[in-house]
Every structure is written in structure tokens, then in C-alpha cells.
Amino acid sequence: MTKLDKTDIGILSALQKDAKLNVKELSDLLHISKTPIYERIKRLENEGYIKQYVALVDNKKVGLPLIVFCNISLAVHDNEHIKRFQEEIKEIEEIMECYSTGGMYDFLIKVVLKDLEHYNVFAFEKLTKVQGIVKMQSSFVLGEIKNITTLNIPS
Q1: What global pTM score does this model have?
Q2: Which among 57, 78, 94, 138 would be 20 to 30 A from 43, CA to CA?
Q3: Crossing angle, helix 6-17 and helix 34-46, to 10 degrees?
């Protein structure tokens, strides 16, 4: 992978703020001609620096205001059980994020739902059916203090 330079960081920073910027707009913003900007974007995509382009949808406006973080512990920690857990978690549509963690719990998941009734259904009809879970603790989001998607890329 290529080391990021000032121009790469500028492109990544600008696209994180507005993925709809086109090559001409990036060219004007960074004071570089369009062809090098286009080539750098393609390289950043090919090397995996840019994973995808998305629209960030407001969960409340689409009727999914409840965010729950669940800490999960597994009964068995061998590769087979962990892999099976991960594959099953990936198939549950309400789970937006899943992280392997150190400490008291093995995994942290972020779940987005309509309300507590839907959380109850999720917890008892979906999450409890995932093999290997021995312990779970849920925390309900009461208010959002900070939620950003832009990384402060070091130079």
C-alpha cells in the first residue's frame, strides 16, 4: 500500500464530509487538475482506503429511534464457536455493528430498532437463538451526544 500524502489525505477528508463531491469539485478544492485527482481516487479505492460510498440515513426519521448496545459473552472461545457466532450475527438485520472486544465481554453489538417491544422480540426470538451466547448485558441509548463518521487522518 502507498503511504498517504497531503493530497491523499485532502481527498479522503473531503469525501468523508461529502461523498457526492465530483472530481471537478475536488480538483477546485485541492488546487490540482482533474486527472491526478481521478487517478488518486481510483488508487485509494483499489487499495481499500475508500471502502464504499454511502448515504447516512437519520434513524429517527425512518422510524427506528431505539439504539441498544449489547455486550455479549460466549460460553466457548475456540475458533469454530467464534466463527459460527460471527456468521450468525452477520445475518441479523437489526445488528448494525459488531466488535470483538477485550475485557469482561467478548463482543459489543449495536442494534437499531423501532421500540422496546421490537427489542424484546429481537432479544428473545433472534439473539437468544445465536449459538454460544452465555451472557448478555444491554444498554439503551437515552440521548446522542456525539456521532461522527469522519476520521481525523494523521499525516
Answers
A1: 0.89
A2: 57
A3: 80
Cell 444498554, located at residue:
139
Distance, CA of 94 to CA of 138 (rounded, Å): 14
Q: What's the pLDDT tens digit per position in 43-53?
A: 999 999 999 99
State phi, psi for 100 to the nearest 5 degrees: -80, 130
Instruction: Give the chain's length.
Output: 155
Distance separating alpha carbons of residues 118 and 134, to the nearest angstrom: 22
The domains of the chain, with CATH numbers, are 6-46 (1.10.10.10), 66-140 (3.30.70.920)
Residue-wise pLDDT for 57-113, tens only, equals 999 999 999 999 999 999 999 999 999 999 999 999 999 999 999 999 999 999 999
